[in-house]
């Protein structure tokens, strides 16, 4: 059968359950071949329409290859996390110590970082070029300065204390600097 998606019966059942449906609700939109479900492009399109999901989402639900989820979750242990030092500028100054808290193949745009800003003055912390993903930053400890370029390009700044947070839209140039030695932030990047 050319151009056919082959999936497990369990994967299709799980997808249907997300809409409180069962296999009998979609008769004719798949073929059973042994323990597998076969769907051609027309059936996939019909299934997506019936479930009111984008076609790409339906296909992703069947694609478990390369997934790092186990039983639909991913747990990251402290000892499995890694750190990296980010340097900036022509003098390669250390800017941030990143500790990767969470990264998963289930959502390629999601990244969670526990970060220590290493600059201590706003004028030393150059704005990055912004990035495609949106970002939520929560201050875990200490106080940090955040700098960003407003719509006009004018540099803006604010002080955030432990418990404060900020949302940064895609492509907004920004930077952080530590106002206290123990300052740490949790950054969640997502699309």
Automatic annotation (TrEMBL):
| Organism from which the protein derives | Pseudomonas syringae
Do you know which InterPro entries this protein is assigned to?
A: Cupin_2 (IPR013096), RmlC-like_jellyroll (IPR014710), RmlC_Cupin_sf (IPR011051)
**Which Pfam families does the record cross-reference, listed alphabetically?**
Cupin_2
Taxonomic path: Bacteria, Pseudomonadati, Pseudomonadota, Gammaproteobacteria, Pseudomonadales
Indicate the segments forming the Cupin type-2 domain, all copies. 131-186
User: Could you tell me what this protein is called?
Assistant: Non-heme Fe-binding protein
SUPFAM superfamilies, A to Z: RmlC-like cupins
